[in-house]
């Protein structure tokens, strides 16, 4: 472990690794403060489960438009730099909302102001996530592609460690501290992150470099995505000649289109350069998006969430109001989930890199359905008849399902990093992952709608068993769409 980290430190630098680990640690540690937000919505604002889930879904919407942040950071440098200035802006947006909520009680006690402030906070967190992902993609491309899995694994380990610490301390904090104190304490991490941005060096690009950079990124994007699509063909030997001709033909077309978009080098204004860069990056993004190797998995991402109602908020209400589980124990269940994530990351990198994605995803959903059945046992109170405590059921059910949900996306995270072409790393990686976030948001809306339709509310959980049963049946729907995943695709580096 120490040698692994040392090898990454030598390749990428101490300050860069520190910033990456800090940002991912902070993302995981968000469980510390968002547990308090959940209780504030339930106890402070007295919202119903469906209303609480609706507010949370809207607040997390900025994670669904991550490509927008990627386009801005890729194409519009601030004082000649593309990453660090945007990271500073994102960190400020992440820091200020917690300071405001910690100081002004009226804002955290009203639904609309609280939802707006939480949305701004998620905007900053999502932007920081995009920028650091782009920095990772750039660093891997400049150094060695073989570091892609190692650097991604280190990021996930840092996030898992943050999740464990945040979950453990979050439950304790809710039992011993005021909610405003929790908000203020969490603001320490974004403050450290803001300070750490000053230690990372980034090369400046000039106006001429920006124009050349736009052209190169546009051309290389088409070539890279086309070749990546070919890598997953089943019968390479039979079609290699025709594909080479097609790639060459598409490359010539892209060169012609790029020349049309170029701004004259003499007399070009800075705004025109930005506009030119935005147009070429957008075109490159659309070209990449149309590649089946990208479009088909992203479609599966979306369907895998939309077709399965998210009842997590409803289960949170059930566990706290009906089962009377304390906040410290619910924090422990999240720790189990994060530990499962860490174990899954290690197991994947050592043993599952060559396994087909279809098989991994199929068994993941089978596992999720089994864990859903455990939730049905809990809600039906069958476990009490069998003498099994509610705490054991929650640990074995919802906590482990979080780990499986995280584990099934590990191969896609590595694959998406491999498909990022030079110049639009932030945009394409963000687009790939925002499909997951947008799908999760839609799944939460579906879950809130299902809870409202079944008249599940605070203190009224009579139809919760039916709702969980519907969720279990829907878990099998994404398996029917696994044909969208390339048959020979694995998560191993090319």
From TrEMBL:
<feature type="transmembrane region" description="Helical">
    <location>
        <begin position="300"/>
        <end position="318"/>
    </location>
</feature>
<protein>
    <recommendedName>
        <fullName>Folate-biopterin transporter 4</fullName>
    </recommendedName>
</protein>
<keyword id="KW-1133">Transmembrane helix</keyword>
<dbReference type="InterPro" id="IPR039309">
    <property type="entry name" value="BT1"/>
</dbReference>
<dbReference type="InterPro" id="IPR036259">
    <property type="entry name" value="MFS_trans_sf"/>
</dbReference>
<comment type="similarity">
    <text>Belongs to the major facilitator superfamily. Folate-biopterin transporter (TC 2.A.71) family.</text>
</comment>
<feature type="compositionally biased region" description="Basic residues">
    <location>
        <begin position="241"/>
        <end position="252"/>
    </location>
</feature>
<keyword id="KW-0813">Transport</keyword>
<dbReference type="GO" id="GO:0016020">
    <property type="term" value="C:membrane"/>
</dbReference>
<feature type="transmembrane region" description="Helical">
    <location>
        <begin position="427"/>
        <end position="452"/>
    </location>
</feature>
<feature type="transmembrane region" description="Helical">
    <location>
        <begin position="12"/>
        <end position="34"/>
    </location>
</feature>
<feature type="transmembrane region" description="Helical">
    <location>
        <begin position="153"/>
        <end position="175"/>
    </location>
</feature>
<feature type="transmembrane region" description="Helical">
    <location>
        <begin position="84"/>
        <end position="106"/>
    </location>
</feature>
<feature type="transmembrane region" description="Helical">
    <location>
        <begin position="330"/>
        <end position="348"/>
    </location>
</feature>
<feature type="transmembrane region" description="Helical">
    <location>
        <begin position="464"/>
        <end position="485"/>
    </location>
</feature>
<feature type="transmembrane region" description="Helical">
    <location>
        <begin position="54"/>
        <end position="72"/>
    </location>
</feature>
<dbReference type="InterPro" id="IPR004324">
    <property type="entry name" value="FBT"/>
</dbReference>
<keyword id="KW-0472">Membrane</keyword>
<keyword id="KW-0812">Transmembrane</keyword>
<comment type="similarity">
    <text>Belongs to the major facilitator superfamily. Phosphate:H(+) symporter (TC 2.A.1.9) family.</text>
</comment>
<feature type="region of interest" description="Disordered">
    <location>
        <begin position="219"/>
        <end position="255"/>
    </location>
</feature>
<dbReference type="Pfam" id="PF03092">
    <property type="entry name" value="BT1"/>
</dbReference>
């Amino acid at each position: 472990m120490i040698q692994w980290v040392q090898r990454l430190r030598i390749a990428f630098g101490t300050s860069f690794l520190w910033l990456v680990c800090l940002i991912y640690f902070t993302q995981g540690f968000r469980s510390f403060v968002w547990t308090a937000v959940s209780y504030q919505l339930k106890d402070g604002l007295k919202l119903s489960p469906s209303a609480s889930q609706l507010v949370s879904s809207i607040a997390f919407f900025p994670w669904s438009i991550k490509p927008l942040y990627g386009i801005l950071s890729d194409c519009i440098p601030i004082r000649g730099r593309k990453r660090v200035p945007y990271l500073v802006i994102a960190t400020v947006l992440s820091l200020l909302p917690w300071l405001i909520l910690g100081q002004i009680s009226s804002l955290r006690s009203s639904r609309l102001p609280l939802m707006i402030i939480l949305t701004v906070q998620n905007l900053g967190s999502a932007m920081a996530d995009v920028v650091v992902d782009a920095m990772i993609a750039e660093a891997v491309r400049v150094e060695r592609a073989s570091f892609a899995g190692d650097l991604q694994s280190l990021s996930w380990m840092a996030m898992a460690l943050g999740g464990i610490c945040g979950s453990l301390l979050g439950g304790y904090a809710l039992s011993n501290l005021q909610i405003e104190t929790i908000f203020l304490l969490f603001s320490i991490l974004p403050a450290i992150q803001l300070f750490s941005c000053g230690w990372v060096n980034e090369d400046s690009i000039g106006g001429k470099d920006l124009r050349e950079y736009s052209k190169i990124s546009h051309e290389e994007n088409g070539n890279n995505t086309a070749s990546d699509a070919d890598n997953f063909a089943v019968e390479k030997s039979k079609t290699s000649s025709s594909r080479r001709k097609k790639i060459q033909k598409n490359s010539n077309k892209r060169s012609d289109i790029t020349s049309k978009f170029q701004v004259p080098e003499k007399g070009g204004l800075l705004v025109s350069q930005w506009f030119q860069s935005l147009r070429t990056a957008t075109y490159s993004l659309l070209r990449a998006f149309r590649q089946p190797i990208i479009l088909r998995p992203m479609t599966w991402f979306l369907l895998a969430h939309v077709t399965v109602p998210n009842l997590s908020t409803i289960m949170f209400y059930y566990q706290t109001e009906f089962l009377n589980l304390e906040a410290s124990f619910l924090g422990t269940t999240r720790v189990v989930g994060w530990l499962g994530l860490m174990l899954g990351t290690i197991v994947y990198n050592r043993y599952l890199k060559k396994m087909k994605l279809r098989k991994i995803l199929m068994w993941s959903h089978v596992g999720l359905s089994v864990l859903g059945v455990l939730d049905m046992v809990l809600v039906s109170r069958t476990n009490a008849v069998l003498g099994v405590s509610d705490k054991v059921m929650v640990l074995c059910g919802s906590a482990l399902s979080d780990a499986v949900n995280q584990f099934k996306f590990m191969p896609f995270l590595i694959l998406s990093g491999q498909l990022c072409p030079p110049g639009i790393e932030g945009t394409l990686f963000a687009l790939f992952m925002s499909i997951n976030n947008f799908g999760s948001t839609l799944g939460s809306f579906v879950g809130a709608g299902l809870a409202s339709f079944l008249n599940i509310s605070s203190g009224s959980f009579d139809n919760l068993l039916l709702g969980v049963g519907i969720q279990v049946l829907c878990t099998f729907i994404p398996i029917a769409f696994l044909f969208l995943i390339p048959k020979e695709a694995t998560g191993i580096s090319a």
